[in-house]
Amino acid sequence: MRNLEEKILRLLEEAGSGGLLQRELYHQLSVPRSTLSTVLRRLEQRGLIVRRREGPLVRIWLSRYAPPDYLGRVRLGLVYALEYPYVPLLLKLSRERRVFDLEVRIFENGIEATLALVRGLIDFCISPLVTQLTIGAVAQNFHIIACAGLGTGALLVRRGVKVRDLEKGRVGSTRLSTMEITLTKILSERGLTPVDIPLHYYSSGHSMARDLQRGVLDYANLWEPYVTQLTTAKVAEVVVDHSELLGLHPCCTLAVRRGVPEEVRTRFLELLEEAVRRTRSGEDLDLVANYFSLTRHLVEKLLSKVLPTSPLDLTSRDMKEFLRRVCYPFGTQEVLTLVKL
Q: Does the model's pTM come out above 0.90?
């Protein structure tokens, strides 16, 4: 064992500040995995090495070479949307800086993402403000700390639909979301309520967009990139642009679970601010396109729409004004105690 310890320490010395992945040590030393794990655990207990997880992998350093401010694993949950195109760069920065291991989980909808935060399955969550306020008012175990995405949605009508009366068409929306509450606002301006129309709720934007394209729906209240994808393909037309109806408004917000250390929260926000700034300047568009499985051309087309300003500039006052405009049905003053900007 002592001979194996010396070999490990020598290899890590040669690796310096870059460290080595545990699997690289395994291949270089050609010893049983169980033996290597035992020796590494002993070296770690003696303070000679530092092991940190990088996604599914483990990196190892000699203690004097390990990043001094490493904060461990951080879990971020979000919904698939181009309203936060900075997420790929945020991932990249977290790996380059080695401040923490950022793990991103994509959920089908805001309810699932926010409930994962409540249950402690993730540390940070980007989901609709409406979803977070409503669930948070009951759960009381997370805080909203920033606006993370501006509203870019629209009510679409499928091309070829002859009946342009909402109460006679099949309408799709997600539940307990920005889409649902903006649809309620659109209906109210026409003297209607959700019970007056054949409303179909969907668990994801993808399934709603698919059903609009297939003719299952006549109308769909959707967000980007679905809006531009469907209109560019001439599948649908915009009936109501949410930004024209409500102006610049928050859609999704960033929430943090209670118990997450203040240092983690602070460093996360620092990296987030840099990722937003650099994405708005047009950096790493190929990275954004690959992450969201979109063409670079579409990303370029959408960037000025989804980030006309930094969402981080919006305040709790902007959130309150948005809730007033859409007639959020619960006590605004009470639920906004969740907001800690």
A: no
